[in-house]
Design goal:
By secondary structure, the protein is of the alpha+beta class. It contains 11 helices and 9 strands. It has 3 domains: about 100 residues, no CATH class; about 100 residues, OB fold (Dihydrolipoamide Acetyltransferase, E2P), CATH 2.40.50; about 80 residues, no CATH class. α6 crosses α7 and α9 packs parallel to α10. The two termini are about 45 Å apart.
């Protein structure tokens, strides 16, 4: 059985030199590595002919290097490398800046795969800082490539290689957390299929199915945790039982509108919970502007009217001020900006 808690330094391609860099990405263990999911994907699997390349597009193409690699130092600290490549339909100027390895890596009269952003000038197409590799490699071109959040000191190519090594390390050895009946009922992949495919999908359906599988488990476990908390809450000591009195009517009369049927239904449910001895733990869900805040305010006033304290928190200072001015300015409240 693979140890998911093993230090990431022991994964091929990491070592002591890259451990600190990976820590900046919160990658410390093998599990951290294989669950560092892509933020996006680039489809580099489809090739275009050079004559089809359009200004501003990012594309993959095959071409043969037609010239020697030229090296020009245009100023201190800036050297530009250039080459002409062709696929028989048209030619393209390839340029790289301060990449000394270019002269060693690219050889005239050999075919390579290229991927980069196209710029069409007067009489010539140009691609700057193109990614390239031999046709039989297919490491970063010729397939769908995952794009990861990066930090200083590591490139996308290097991180992809390290993650691929991590995925190979756990291949077929991940423990399945979901019961087989759940996998079958919801047509879910197992984790041994989902983890490799979310990183290195063969097509769009691969990463959609992999993402669905992983997201399902996260929500499933969260729901189980909430249900567990709810069950534990039933066995706790008797909670506060609020009476029907309160200052709710004052607010309802002051509103320039009547509550909707949905608001009244939710408020009735909240009243029922507050007037019982069962502790209430409730999430009110609704679109922006649907009236959640006024329902929360009613619950607060019911608590205050029964001699207890209530507090409302808001995610921003601006929203906190809006709530204060709208609902609480004339009430006996103290606003504490966080």
């Amino acid at each position: 059985m693979v140890d998911l808690e093993q230090d990431v330094r022991f994964i091929k391609g990491v070592g002591p030199s890259r451990v600190e860099i990976l820590k900046k990405l919160n990658i410390r263990t093998l599990e951290d590595l294989i669950t560092y999911f892509p933020r996006d994907y680039e489809d580099r699997s489809k090739y275009k002919q050079i004559c089809e390349l359009q200004d501003g597009e990012t594309a993959a193409f095959k071409a043969v290097i037609q010239s020697n690699i030229t090296e020009n130092r245009i100023r201190k600290g800036m050297t530009i490398y250039k080459a002409i490549a062709s696929d028989g339909t048209d030619s393209v100027l390839l340029t790289w800046f301060n990449q000394t390895y270019i002269k060693k890596m690219l050889k005239p009269h050999e075919e390579y795969l290229f991927y980069g952003k196209v710029k069409v000038g007067i009489g010539r197409k140009e691609v700057q800082s193109a990614i390239f590799e031999l046709e039989n490699e297919h490491k970063n071109i010729g397939k769908i490539v995952p794009i990861y959040p990066l930090t200083e000191g590591i490139t996308g190519n290097v991180l992809r290689s390290i993650i691929q090594n991590g995925v190979e390390t756990v291949k077929g050895e991940l423990i399945e957390d979901l019961p087989e009946e759940i996998l079958q009922k919801y047509h879910l992949w197992g984790m041994n299929e989902a983890i490799p495919k979310i990183h290195f999908p063969n097509d769009a359906s691969d990463f959609e199915l992999a993402r669905y599988r992983i997201a399902f488990e996260e929500l499933f476990i969260t729901e189980l945790a909430l249900l567990s908390m709810k069950e534990k809450g039933k066995t706790k000591d008797v909670g506060i039982r609020f009476s029907q009195k309160g200052r709710v009517e004052e607010l309802l009369k002051s509103l320039p509108y009547e509550l909707t049927s949905a608001q009244m239904r939710v408020w009735t449910e909240i009243c029922h919970d507050m007037e019982s001895t069962k502790p209430m733990n409730r999430l009110v869900q609704g679109d922006v502007g649907s009236g959640k805040t006024v329902v929360a305010t009613l619950a607060m006033l019911k608590a205050v009217g029964n001699g207890y304290q209530a507090a409302m928190m808001a995610p921003t200072a601006i929203l906190a001020k809006q709530h204060y001015l709208r609902y609480f300015k004339n009430a006996s409240t103290i606003w504490y900006p966080l």
